Amino acid sequence: MAPSSVAPHDPAAARGISRRTQSEIYRAGISGTKPRVPVDADALEAAARRALSAEAFAYIAGGAGAERTVAANRDGFARWQVWPRPLRDVATRDLSIDFLGVRRATPFLLAPLGVMEMAHDDADLAVARAAASLGVPYTLSNQASFPMEEVRDAAPEGSRLFQLYWSASDELNASLLRRAEASGCEAIVVTLDTHLLGWRTRDLDLAYLPFTRAMGIAQYTSDPVFQQLVRERARGAGTMTDAAAPPVRVTPKAVAAGIRIARKGTALTGSGLRESLRSPLPRAAVETFLDVFSTPALTWGDLAKAREWTSLPIILKGIVHPDDAARALDAGVDGVWVSNHGGRQIDQSVPTIAALPGVVERIGGRVPVVFDSGIRQGTDAVIALALGATAVAIGRPYAYGLGLAGEAGVREVVRNLLAELDITLGLSGHTSIAELGADTLRTV
Ligand SMILES: Cc1cc2nc3c(=O)[nH]c(=O)nc-3n(C[C@H](O)[C@H](O)[C@H](O)COP(=O)(O)O)c2cc1C
What we know:
Layout (H helix, E strand, L loop, with lengths): L16 H14 L10 H11 L2 H8 L6 H8 L4 E3 L14 E3 L2 E3 L3 E3 L12 H12 L3 E3 L7 H7 L5 E6 L4 H13 L5 E4 L9 H6 L11 H4 L2 H13 L15 H18 L3 H6 L2 H12 L11 H6 L4 E4 L4 H9 L4 E4 L13 H12 L5 E3 L6 H9 L4 E4 L1 H32 L13 E3 L1
Helix pairs in contact: 1-18, 2-18, 5-6, 5-18, 10-13, 11-13, 15-16, 17-18
Bound molecules: flavin mononucleotide (FMN).
Flavin mononucleotide binds next to helix 3 and helix 18.
C-alpha cells in the first residue's frame, strides 16, 4: 500500500488526508491486509519492541529514572478535553501554519532523534525522505547517523532544521553551524536540556551507550574541525577519556564493537576497514566525542556566540519555565521549543503539556512556540495547538515506524497522526489550525 503523500510547502496538499488514509486502510482490509505499522500508539510501540534489538528499543523507548516523566508527558493530556461543535460546515479543512516566515502544509515537525541507525540502516536518510514527501520539516539531530550534507542529498526538496548540542569546542560549534547553513537548513535548534546525560535506567542496565560504539557521531566525524581534534588526540596516543577507567576486557562483544568503530572510522582514515582497524583514529574519534559532547558550564551569556556563528534563525529547545521563555525573548532568539526531551533527562519532571500555557503566555505571540514530549495521537496535537503551540513535534512514534518499515514506516506514522488531527479538527467544528484556541478545550 502506497501511503498518501503531501507536496512540500503546498498548504492545500494536506487537505483530505484523513479521508484518503481511511480509504486506503479500509480498502486494503477488503483483501485481508492490515497496516504493518499499527495505528494505535501502544500497539506501534509494542510492534517496535518486537522488531528492534533489546538495546535499540531500550535506547529509544527509555527515559530517566523510573520513567515517571515519560508517563506524565502522556497522562498530562488527560486534563484537557475537546468540545465538539457540530453544524459548522467543516467540509474543507486547512492544516497549514506559518512557521519561520513560510507557509507549511501541516503543523508538524519531526523532532531531532539521534542514532536512528539503531532503528534502521537508512536512518536519517529514510526519515528525511519521508518528511519531505509529507511536507513536514525535519529537525536533523547533532547525533545523526549520516552527515547533514548526505541527508540533504537524500531529499533536497525537503525542509530541514539543524539541532545543535553545544559542545565544549566553540570552533566545532561554529563549524557545525556553518555546514548547517551551507547545506540549506532553515534554522538552528539549540538543545539546552542535555548538558549532562540523563540517568537512563534501561541503558545502564544493558550497559549500552551507542556513542561508545561510534554510532550517532556522523556529524562529528564528517566535520573538519572535529577531525583535527581527533588527529591531535591520536598524536597524544592511547589517552583514555577517564584515566582511572578499567581497561576494556577482550570478549567477542568487545571485538565486534571494535570492528564497528573501525568501520565507522573509515570516514576519518579515508581508507578501507583493514587499515582503519590498525589506525588509532577511530577510537580517538569516540574518545574525542565523549570529551567534547557536553558543556555543563553553558550559561545564557554564551548564547550570543551563536549569533556570530550563523545568520539562521535560532530556536531554543528545552524551555519549560515561563521565566526562561522571557529570558529567551530577552536574548533575542527566534523561537522556543517546549520540551523535556521526552522524559529522558529528569525523572519526575514537569510534563510539557502542563508547562505549555505558561510559556505561551509569556511569549505572547512574539516568536513561535514549538511543542513536544508525549504526542502520540492527532488529538494530542489538537490540544497542544489549542493551548497556543505554533507547531508540534513528533518524536518516538516515527522512530518506531522507521524500525518497522523504514521510510514508508515513518511516512505511515506521520500520515496517521495528520489524519487524526484533521478528523478531530473537523469533528470539533474547526476548519483551520488558526481557529483552535482556549474555547476549543475544557479542563477536567
Ligand atoms: C531515541 C531518541 C533520541 C533523541 N535524540 C535527540 C537529539 O539528538 N537531540 C535532541 O535535541 N533531542 C533528542 N531527543 C528528544 C526528542 O527531540 C524529543 O524532544 C522527544 O523525543 C519528545 O518526546 P516523545 O518522543 O516522547 O514525544 C531524542 C529522543 C529520543 C526518543
